[in-house]
Amino acid sequence: MNRLLRRLSPALLLCASQAWAQAAAPLPYQSTDQSLGTVNCANSLCHGSITPWHESPVLRNEYVTWSRLDKHARAYRVLHNERSRTIVRNLGLPTPAHETKLCLDCHAHNVPEAQRGERFNLSDGVTCEACHGPAERWIQSHVEPGASHAGNLDRGLYPTSDADSRAKLCLSCHWGNQDKLVNHRLMGAGHPRMSFELETFTAIAPAHFRVDADYLARKPAVDGVKVWAIGQALAVQEMMDLLVDPKRGRDGLFPELVLFDCHACHHPMSQAKWQPRGQFGAHAGPGTVRLNDSGMLMLRAVAREVDPALGLRVGRQVSRLHLAVAGQGDAIAEARALKRLAAEVALRIDTHAFSAASPGHIALALVDEGLAGGYADYAGAEQAAMAIGSVVDHMHKRGLAAPAGALNAALERLNAALADDEAYRPAQFQQRLREMRALLVAK
Ligand code: HEC
Ligand code: HEC
Ligand code: HEC
Ligand code: HEC
To answer: Would you give the DSSP letter of residue 279?
Structure first.
């Protein structure tokens, strides 16, 4: 965000400065503090209680939730499984997965040797400190009487309760960043396809925290719609960074294929399914490889809600990028322009007061995008379904949506249409969207 902030007016800078100060916190693996190890958090009087405490501001059973239910706790262990062995063999790597930096960077808290405390254990996987930051400077003080959240942050606690920072953290492993990357070679070798949507993933990760009155007295509430929206804006920025990077964004004669719609290439030739993709007002024509624009579709829907003119600008810029990638323009320049625009959208989201009606508008806009033919590609439909799910859940919790039973059934049918990416039929998905629309406008 640095570069963008320098381009903005002082007034905007001022209102964005708080969010920026937090967004600028180093990611946990980038910090130079010592990581002490999960055992330090696991004591039954700390975060290792079997059941939640009632007289404590935090649940105290975080460790038990994490170690028993959270996939992050087994992220290292999967590096020993058959699939990992296959990936490593196919890539011709010289070391097994659990000794390979590439894998460990995302499947563990892989900080340099010098920053590992005595009780640090790499095999603990994606640990408390991998998300909350190395504990060296806050382990003592965060439990002292009078400890404050701001004080903890000053001592290196990572601001997971800030929407930007949380998005940056999760995306660093679930999409990759300048240091970590799941590229097409890794997928070709057998790594699962990454599909991430911040709010959905926050919701499905077994929660070890509760946003209640006491929480709100200590930290700002993170509005679910905002987390989702900022997650989309950041994902588009990360994607553009990758596209313009001469090292990461290329593979021999080809651009990095992970940036493109997987199903643009991976479908049988007999399945002639080409049709104009008009969702951004321009398409490059048959026989071209399309960028995966699912995040951009979401970004446009959010931008529209914040400011219709901003939505139009996003749509136009994505069109230009699509055309440029297919040879009609300067792809690098257009990618840079889209990155700047996505950063601008993120700032606008940060300071925008979404109204009670906003989630409804966004859900309806996403549905209508699909009815207008916007989700001809699986990846777009998948992002849209996750987003509609998050937004509808948010509305439901606030009593703004149709009865839960009907909505859940409609959501399930929407997701069922996506169960097999290779058998995806856009017309069927549209039919499910029509059912969803009827429920959304009924309220
Ligand atoms: C940029 C981060 C990143 C890198 C690099 C990475 N992974 Fe992963 N890996 C993930 C994430 C995130 C998932 C979970 C995907 C999901 O479920 O959405 C995953 C899932 C997996 C799975 C499936 C897990 C399961 O529960 O079955 C295996 C196996 C795996 N990775 C092995 C590897 C190996 C081996 C390497 C190194 C060659 C590697 N990964 C490199 C982030 C990464
Ligand atoms: C994958 C990332 C991740 C991991 C791993 C993780 N957390 Fe969290 N944790 C979060 C997020 C996100 C929140 C919610 C935002 C916030 O309050 O900061 C949170 C919140 C918390 C809270 C605050 C609850 C409150 O009411 O203020 C505590 C305490 C906590 N985690 C402890 C732990 C402990 C202990 C571990 C390890 C056993 C752990 N976390 C592992 C991401 C993680
Ligand atoms: C250090 C890297 C890292 C960070 C940071 C991280 N994750 Fe993960 N996450 C992983 C890996 C690796 C897996 C796959 C583990 C497995 O399948 O065994 C995973 C799995 C998950 C899963 C389970 C997915 C499934 O298929 O069931 C969810 C949900 C998830 N992460 C959410 C989050 C959220 C939300 C955040 C941010 C608060 C986050 N993660 C931060 C590495 C990370
Ligand atoms: C530009 C076309 C193109 C795009 C886009 C593309 N791939 Fe590929 N993919 C290929 C080619 C070519 C191969 C190599 C096939 C071979 O070796 O027979 C391949 C191989 C693979 C393989 C190994 C298949 C095998 O037979 O072992 C997997 C898995 C894979 N890709 C997944 C993906 C995913 C996931 C995406 C989207 C993120 C994607 N691909 C995007 C062209 C593409």
So the answer is: T
